[in-house]
TrEMBL record, chains A, B:
It comes from Cucurbita moschata. Its EC number is 3.1.2.-. This is Acyl-[acyl-carrier-protein] hydrolase. Gene3D superfamilies: Hotdog Thioesterase. Residues 95-229 form the Acyl-ACP thioesterase N-terminal hotdog domain. Pfam families: Acyl-ACP_TE, Acyl-ACP_TE_C. Plays an essential role in chain termination during de novo fatty acid synthesis. Keywords: Chloroplast, Fatty acid biosynthesis, Fatty acid metabolism, Hydrolase, Lipid biosynthesis, Lipid metabolism, Plastid, Transit peptide. Residues 253-322 form the Acyl-ACP thioesterase-like C-terminal domain. GO terms for molecular function: acyl carrier activity; fatty acyl-[ACP] hydrolase activity. One of its GO terms (cellular component) is chloroplast. It is an enzyme of class 3 (hydrolase). Belongs to the acyl-ACP thioesterase family.
């Protein structure tokens, strides 16, 4: 075993001669913050020699295709650890934690992760949670029971608060778990934490309901599905809200408006919806440049009202609340809320908790509306609120906790 | 040690009480294709109890900020393995391999990874290669020597061939390595391989030169930089090209044209360039919908001519080559090539090898041009070529290699 340049607390060596395969595949392990190294220089040389052979035949040359399920390997029973996703089951067996490195293309010009990237990672960890549960059917997060009833998940509300954006190359841990939301809904929460210090960088909470894939109407939760998912529910909240603040509906007197926005093919996700991230972009593109440069997005609330199809033409409206003075902050009424194509959904699904907290004078807030430009009338896609605070430099000296 | 639902060939257990930390951090290991599990149910319960405590203080509440270098932990010497990036050094110590799971937001409506996502992963693995080398300075892939001379990398040409797009949840291995390209350039190649079968899904090659960050002019490679990077060069090619095919310059007679395209803030990368992926989107948005639906992008060539700033207005032109008949396929002349702001670059940097191969009648090819709409004249940003072939279903039965 060769020695390496940094301390190796514990060493395991192994190599596999994979039957029919071209390569020895060595694996490594992380233990005690140190590394179990499974690679010796001899291994490296032998691997290198093999890899340096004439070009490896490509799929096309062999004309082989492997079945989707063989390629995906979706677990059919609960898994506690996934080494490839760097995920593990936590919270006494019902929560999920994934270790993630912030990638170079997930950060903006200032080297910090964008809200878009964070929301992508929230989606990814949510799906990997279902993946690990053994409940995942072939759909986009749908369980076997949901597939049977032709149901898909739709998000009705999402709130993300970011205290600190991770930077390029930083390692974070994302925890996610689910709970009940009224009779027919599910809450999903997240915490994003610095892997190095354990400090919380961001928190998220969201509410999900089921929609029939054919009729595109919301559905009650079938008992069969409840039996699948309710054992995973816990009563833990990433964000403490006493009641929801109401987001008023903007009209064409809004200060900023971008019109004639068209979804592109590349904006559709596996459910053939316009992706969340596109909504977020449309919202943020109405924010003035000087704000984007000097401020950082500290929280975002998205309330989804209806689907947006690939042929819709969209308008993004935005209205600032000057000087951080709160406006339109009425409690949501405890009545029926019209959501998605006129389907009425008990507000209990949406009920949760409190105001976003108090605001400094320097805090900026914007109310947002995305709507489909209709001939007779416009149809709401989403209401939103963004809160912004002054950017802080990340390069001041380390201070101990 | 609790028993788990799937075979555990080898078990290591360990836990860390991290000094001053909130959590025990358990690590796991992959060995011989099996899994070294480091988590027992007792561990899980104890972890869960800790995680379920009252909410963990956030960064803002503590007012602490950690220095960038502490958060990034860029290695100052060569690393052979990175467990978080799932990366390791191969090719006798000079190449890099990273294992990657295709994420839910990296795939399109058909569940296969998009070309955009693949190009993002190529960028990511290239940077992680430099990261592991110990040469990375604080810039976007620049070495210490480059920083000293105020140099950044710019890509002058990129070719990606995809035989098979990985699907959501599929595990791939991406190999990357570098070689010399003429006197002042560097070639970087990639292979994307199925982790399960070892078959090659995609190949890439690219040519890079150095640019002065202030003057925005191309630079020779300083000897100090050559000394840093040349020990990493190898003579291995992911794609065999005998000579480059020339991409003709389109004019306003091109069949498809999208005008008035404006880069958004979110399109800028850490170098404050408009990101590659944005160029790709602008190119692909000119391709007719029926092609995007029935065909898959099997190869793409990008030839970069000049930078695009955030205030430029861009035009994307596209011209089909009907019936796959090759046009404009002249060998590139062995003369000086004008590149980026009039800087002349010896064509030897760009020289490499041959035609893309022969084409079936069903293959579609498009020539692309991105240019800045100027008052006096338009300035070329990029020429490109895309090749498309009929989509194949991924669900036909597994056939052995």
């Amino acid at each position: 075993m060769a020695s390496f340049s940094c301390p190796v607390p514990y060493v395991v060596r192994c190599s596999i001669a994979k039957e029919g395969g071209d390569f020895n595949r060595q694996r490594y392990a992380k233990v005690n913050g140190g590394i179990i190294r499974s690679i010796s220089e001899a291994d490296l040389l032998s691997r290198s020699a093999k890899a340096s052979r004439a070009l490896i035949p490509s799929v096309a040359e062999n004309g082989f295709v492997v079945k989707e399920d063989v390629r995906q390997k979706i677990p059919t029973k609960k898994q506690l650890v996934d080494p490839y996703r760097q995920g593990l089951i936590i919270e006494g067996g019902v929560g999920y934690r994934q270790t993630v490195v912030i990638r170079s293309y997930e950060v903006g010009p200032d080297k910090t992760a964008t809200m878009e990237s964070l929301m992508n990672l929230l989606q990814e960890t949510a799906l990997n949670h279902v993946w690990m549960s053994g409940l995942l059917s072939n759909g986009f997060g749908a369980t076997h029971g949901m597939m049977k009833h032709n149901l898909i998940w739709v998000v009705s509300r999402m709130l993300v608060e970011v205290d600190h954006y991770p930077i390029w190359g930083e390692i974070v841990e994302i925890d996610t778990w689910v709970g009940a939301s009224g009779k027919n809904g599910m809450r999903r929460d997240w915490l994003i934490r610095s892997q190095a210090t354990g400090h919380v960088y961001a928190r998220g909470t969201s509410t999900w309901v089921m929609m029939n894939q054919q009729t595109r109407r919301l559905s009650k939760m079938p008992e069969e599905v409840r039996a699948e998912i309710s054992p995973w529910f816990i009563e833990k909240h990433a964000i403490k809200e006493d009641a929801y603040e109401k987001i008023s509906k903007l009209d064409d007197k809004a200060k900023y408006m971008n019109s004639d926005l068209k979804p592109k093919r590349s904006d559709l996700d596996m459910n053939h919806h316009v992706n969340n991230v596109k909504y977020l972009r449309w919202m943020l593109e109405t924010i003035p440049d000087h704000v984007l440069e000097s401020q950082q997005l500290s929280s975002i609330i998205l309330e989804y009202r209806r689907e947006c199809g690939s042929s819709d033409i969209v308008q993004s409206l935005c209205e600032p609340e000057e000087n951080g003075i709160l406006r339109d902050v009425d409690m949501i009424e405890d009545s029926e809320i019209s959501l998605l194509n006129g389907f009425s959904l008990a507000s209990e699904i949406l009920k949760g908790g409190g105001l976003l907290g108090s605001f400094d004078n320097g805090t900026l807030r914007y109310t947002h509306l995305l709507q489909i430009e209709g001939e007779a009338k416009n149809e709401e896609i989403m209401r939103g609120r963004t809160t912004w605070k002054k950017k802080v430099t990340t390069t001041i000296p380390f201070s101990t906790q």
